[in-house]
Structure to design on (1800 residues):
């Protein structure tokens, strides 16, 4: 086993100030020239208390983002769950207090962040647990198929759900895909070229589309081999081949393409180290939640 | 009938230059300090031709965004579908040619945009057609429950699918929600206050949670009434009440909350003008598509 | 009467954090690489108290902006008037205390904001009162003819002065102007096309240049009709026509073009709901005010 | 005479690309999520020709800005006047052709820029000529009392009108004002301190409020002395004093404060080198102009 | 040997558009409100030809950046060297033609970029060749000790000089430094924790400060071990220990700290795979070059 | 003597908020999608104390920048030196406490800023003192040859070291260089043109390449003459010529080009007012320093 089995999800740390800027840009888009409703309806010096409440079961994520956004707007809050905690319907996630107009003008941006991230974390956790229950240590990874512009948030949510964020973006790993191979000519040439020119700081992964190329890739020195659109049967053959050639356990195997919650365990059973799914981040079901005003106090 | 039945989806026009800046920011996030793979594998003066190909049936959206992004990067392209066209599996949407490294470094950002927008347009179109087939003119609208930061893209995709983008953000309409009413005290006071202070340029919509408040809202002068979490039965009662009081056909009715593809027709049948669903934009299934390099030419 | 007569001016609400970013950008332009004078003259740990003082009579506006900017720079302040209050010559608007260099380096940006906004609010209030004194409820609105880039500030100042901000920018209302009609062919076609495709969330206004088109526009379903460059006489005819056809009181009438402080009452007298003037925001007379250091304390 | 009498107005050069970014930011604010009207009314592949037409007499300014903005949006144009030219009512300033939706969505931003800048240039030119006709070479300068955020545009417009832009912002000159003197204690100490610590690359100006301080400032080594709120009589005394002490013609004199178009010549007559007025930029009357569509062609 | 000996320097690919934005920001800072000199001296429609000329021997870098910046400003150019080429004194690197004011206003920004990057590439190449001449394949790497904000440019210049850019920033590799170990307690615990939680996509490097910890790190599973401030003698011992334990050739060794051009070969001789030096990027000697106008043509 | 001999270095004042934005942008580049190491190794609620420690002798600079950055990240700090103080090896400059992950993720950006600025200040101070010891009052100035994008930081560091920041960027002074003269034809025409059109607020400097042009420049009215690439001998001649013609002591003389620490005194000896060197900012030797964690406390 060349991958740790204690993996819980790697998270990228951003100081609150830096995260704040990303969140404020989201809020600014929603505000346009300003919230016209809150100003019409809510008195100027009105304080309110509000709660973010889960409306279905799942895994909380985006709680840190929520607190950073609230703090940057001068609102007070208390969190009742932390990222990664399981939540039940009607459970209060965060209590907020402060200027009522500000609370109402950030409500939707806040919920959009927390419910999307929680939806991603929930789906990831579900799949990870299914695989664990079936007795496998296989890692569940996402891809770069996120909502456009949301790489940080989508990848962080996968990590919170216990998944592997995989390559974060285009600068942190070499991943040679079918289109690269189409240009350079062969898996072997691609891997040898990359290994010959790459910084020592980076791993080299290559995507292969048939069983023979798995061995080619391993011999050429790939650190990770992505079995693209393989059937479980083909994975089995690839593993056999690698074992025979003495590469199994030395090179990481990632199964990718057409993997779903339903068939994921079959792939895990064949001995790949990682299963990756685009759907975890490109086809998200947001976790249902709402923000409710629970107390109001107009200041004189 | 106070809403046009010829509606095809209102779209917000952005000059290409302004759109380009939004798209470049998305690309920049994915690039980080740069694409390390393309540089290792692809020769410097290499030209390529590539195709964006649909892998499932649906409605194309994001094609304009794709062309703006490609043009801003100095790539050539020809489009084979336009936004709103139906696409079949294996259909080529866009042919691209130009610097191979640039094509490969924008591939994922491009696909993330087009496949998300197409997924939203597809789901919207499906629901609109279901309602039309059942014989109703009811409009399908989205909400502000989009992916955070993607208001423009998600709303435009809904429009392309034949839906109504609804309020675009917080500055273009007054929408008094439950939390506003919790603060000001009653539906009546909320509507009267808003109507008394609002710019003549804006409509006033109010969310009500019970049948009685529908009449209150209409009497207070609301332009649009949102029936929140009503059952079809409750909608029926509300309509009856409004007819009796002479408001039906003068105030717009929007049903919202717990509406799904399955039960949408039942709401349409009760005579509401608009059905709105958060799920169209917060729980998107991306339309599957890929980018394939089809020709390569290294320049000497 | 289809427009509320209790109107006091609708204001767009921006959380302080979001407003702060707009203000800081203004300050940064004035600073360039830094204030060279304050550093040369003012000792490093010098605290000062300063006052913003009105030098002529008018309506205060921009006070909120001033406090947001001061707070973001770490300066303390006490406000002696709030937005919309009338001020007299020599009246203190805001007292400021804190780091002297910071106060001096923000002085001009601060005054530029407050004096421009107050100038706009003052002119608006004056016109509104003139019309009220003449016994009319007609609303005074501005246009999008603001200083470039200052839409938010100029529109907010109009609201503070008791005016209607009108359409905020290009996304919050449909306003079909002469150039649109030149392209599509006729007022009727323009209005019918817009009504057929527009989101239910938006009003449709159309600009007409002759009395006949007023009726055409009303029949085609316009929510608001802009009488462009009409004489009071022509307005009278238009109103007569609409009354006869039963549209008066159902469609809003806005008089626009060549309206000045001098002739505004004549238009109001003819029964239009709104009078709009570009000059309120494109030809502003700033309200004279200054910032005076009143106390200095160098820290050891 | 220590100031050139051939002065025509110094202009700051910005490469078009850098100017483009400032202009695009203004446009983006006006667009919000997009122009909803143009999309509803104007067909997709519609080309139009349009003209920017002066509606009153004045001096053109902002023409360069207009061309940079039009070019960045992919529109074609021909200019019929250049910055600084005099224009008559009905004169065509710029002809534009290209995508009709784009033209209409930039119309207002374009006019706001050109009409404000032309208004400033016109007022400046008028005052400069009045002074020249009276036989004086005195320079007319503006201050930093511009519309907030428009330093570049307002100062450039003054230059186009033949005025002196004065200090551009806080980093390009030392200007010791009353508040600085209040902190450091005296004009003499202020000037000596500044001269002792300032970079050799910068001039030092000081504001004085009484005749005696003029001599103090000159002796302390000020390069320029601002006579703040002096009457013409007081200016006369100051000049006398300087002549007697041998400083006249060696230090520049700037009259500032309470100077208007009406009394400016009186100050010029007393021999100051520069007259500066805040009103040229803080209380602008925009030059009236409009954009008219003159031809339309829908592409098949 | 576990690191390729054909390494020539890995480069991060940025599409020209994305690079352009970084470069324009640098230019904008230098311009402030505009270049006052060029406008005073250079006529408006003046074209010029200019050359960037090396004034000393070295390795060219920043040529791509120069062309991107020139192109974005609408200037024409021809390049006579490409990144990585050796240049001699008086050699022309780039010929530029176009608007003279634009050329002069970008001159300094352009030279600052090219001369800094060339200086870095030159120093890197010199050290790489020294090591090659001594018969070693050891890689020369830089660190994150760049000029603040210039990570991309400094790292790219190192690559052009034949060096390894090492970790690009904080998200692309795990590098456990002394301060991390101070917090977690031991090298062993640090490496085990990281390996247990890290994404499969990333390598784990650890900094050790004594010979014993080298073996600890290797046993704990580190991919790369940084020998911090080791003497050549200590490196020798570490290698011996690793060989005995069977880890040599399986884990990468990086020598870092107090390595200079003078002693680098001694470290190479001991068998480390990588030598890294902060000084290559934090203490740069810019390569001397200038821009000369060679032809001028004023357009009528 | 026309330049003050009490000069200590002019500094541009930026309010902390404005400075913060520049610093946060630097930090954001280094973070990418986040610091993966700190998150893996450092517990979530871990507080640490750290020290920035000098490792060699020099002049501290960047201390203000460090405190602004630390404060913006919510970290506490105590400074033990202020900008301009001399520091010894092992001396603690700043003590920091707060969230350990945040400290570690800002460590490198912080050190990059402080060590570069201190390196510049140290070199400047050394040269200033050498000249003072030789008995001359000549000022040491830098140029615009900074690291690209670091104008503010590099110039401020020069000032802290006792140097003159010279022209800050392209908008604060007229500096006619060889290329400008190549275009306009002669030194005389260049100076006369500039003096005739320049704002009264700015000085005019001209670069001359031979002794005769020095007199030409002085007669034409230049405020400052830059003797470019003159030998000390040529400077001597120029001074003689100016004395004879009565200009010496009335026009400032700046020697520039090929001046080094070694020969600077020779130039000073010839009576120039200013010596400027590009190398102070384009070829910086960073001052060695490090950040050490000295205490750790994990919160329960």
């Amino acid at each position: 086993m060349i991958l740790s089995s204690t993996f819980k999800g790697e998270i990228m740390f951003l100081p609150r100030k830096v995260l704040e800027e990303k969140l404020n840009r989201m809020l600014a888009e929603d505000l346009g020239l300003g919230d016209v409703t809150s100003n019409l309806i809510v008195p100027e010096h009105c304080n309110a208390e509000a709660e973010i409440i889960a409306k279905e079961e799942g895994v909380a994520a985006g709680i840190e983002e929520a607190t950073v956004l609230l703090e940057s707007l001068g609102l007070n809050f208390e969190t009742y769950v932390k990222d990664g905690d399981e939540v039940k319907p009607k459970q209060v996630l965060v209590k907020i207090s402060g200027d009522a107009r500000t609370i109402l003008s950030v409500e939707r941006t806040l919920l959009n962040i927390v419910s999307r991230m929680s939806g991603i974390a929930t789906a990831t956790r579900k799949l990870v647990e299914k695989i664990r229950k079936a007795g496998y240590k296989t890692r569940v990874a996402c891809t770069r198929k996120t909502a456009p512009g949301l790489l940080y948030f989508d990848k962080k949510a996968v990590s919170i759900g216990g998944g592997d964020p995989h390559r974060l973006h285009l600068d942190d790993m070499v991943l040679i895909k079918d289109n690269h191979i189409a240009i350079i000519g062969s898996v072997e040439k691609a891997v040898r070229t990359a290994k010959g020119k790459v910084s020592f700081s980076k791993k080299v992964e290559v995507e292969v589309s048939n069983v023979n190329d798995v061995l080619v890739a391993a011999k050429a020195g790939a650190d990770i081999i992505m079995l693209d659109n393989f059937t479980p049967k083909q994975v089995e053959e690839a593993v056999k081949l690698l074992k025979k050639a003495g590469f199994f356990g030395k090179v990481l195997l990632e199964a990718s393409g057409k993997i779903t919650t339903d068939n994921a365990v079959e792939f895990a059973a064949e001995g790949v180290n990682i299963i990756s799914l685009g759907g975890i981040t490109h086809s998200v079901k947001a976790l249902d939640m709402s923000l409710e005003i629970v107390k109001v106090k107009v200041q004189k």
Observations:
- The interface with chain A takes residues 24, 27-28, 31-36, 38-40, 72-74, 101-102, 105-106 of chain F (CB under 8 Å).
- The longest strand of chain F covers residues 289-298.
- Residues 16-128+285-298 of chain F form a domain with the Aldehyde Oxidoreductase; domain 3 fold (CATH 3.90.1170.20).
- Chain F has a mean pLDDT of 95.
